[in-house]
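Final report, Chapter 2: Outcomes

The project's central promise was a pipeline that accepts a single protein chain and returns its three-dimensional structure in a standardized token representation, suitable for archiving and comparison. That pipeline is now operational. To close this chapter, we reproduce one record exactly as it appears in the project archive, with the input sequence first and the structure output second.
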Amino acid sequence: MQLSFLGPLFDRSGPWATVYFDPAQNDESGAKRRELSVREACRTLEQEGADAATVQVVHDALMNIGPAEDPAGRVIFAAGGEVVLSHRLSRSPQRQIACWAPLPRLTPLLELSGQDPSCLVAYIDRTGADFELRGAAGPQDAGHVEGRQQPMRRTPSADWSERHFELKVENTWEHNAGEIAQALGSAYEECGADLVVLVGDPRERPAVYERLPEAVREVAVETEHGGRAAGSSSAPLEEAIERARQQYTRRRVEEVLDRFRAGRVGTDRPTDAVEGVPALVEAAREHRIDTLLIRPDGPELGRETWVGAEPDQLATRRTDAQTLGESDPISVRADDALLRSAAVTAADVLIVPPPDEDGPDIPAGGLGALLRWAYEPTPA
């Protein structure tokens, strides 16, 4: 999961109010429960030291969250009397989370957003295609392409001239498939999607797939549901897209964990994987983290870490943070510090499942990373 959409959170200083909020059912009793939940969240912020202006804007924002628009709820990030970011959740939080802290509380967002991989959906017919990017910020127009418009229809006649016309139709379809594939490849590169879903015409769709660049074809899947025409969206189409995203996430987790197991420190050779807060803090300071691994139940996520104003000013000890140029470092949770660094340095973030009952603790303590380049382990 890329965290670039969280950029506004790191363009200003805190402290931060973070609230993960689940709206109650849309009825009279639900409205009362929602109001009580809002009061409880605001009371928690006040008790933890939040200023009155920030508590008020959080209160107003939470009261505007309803089950019809946000059935799973939202997370609110506010500071300095302003709601800086409000993000829709994919899954409802099991309990309300409200906190006032130097950094935004981000780990629950990774869990409740379902690690949503960005998905480029191509709605295809024989004349062209429309592209839509689905990601953390919601559906976005990603462009379109139009091919040749004539000739487009076959005729039932066996006459030679009609057969000649049919060949022109076939050539038009083939040409358009190539045009769509080329445009889709460009859109994929430009938007940075994780996977591609091809929707639409049962003949043109596989023809487009065959002509895609290899890198795009490797992450592309087809579905028979839906089409390019207005009103062709359906529940089966949405299910197919969600299924493709879930399958991508499972494969991604398995591949990353395999790489992590192979690259962990355990020998005297250079390593491209590290685990534990001290090693991760060192890697984050040097912008070496490529993929940050987080297991939400890990015991080291809440370990005390010291940070300064800049994302690469982080250390496991206060005195170490001061040597990095921060005269007055702040104590924060390790996962909050590492996620801020990952967001600012464009690192990927991956939630990993808890280990099997008899399985190893991977990553140790719940925090690990694949690195952008291998390095020699620091001697103990």
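Archive annotation: The first strand starts at residue 16 and ends at 21.
This record, like all others produced under the grant, will remain available to the consortium after the project formally closes.
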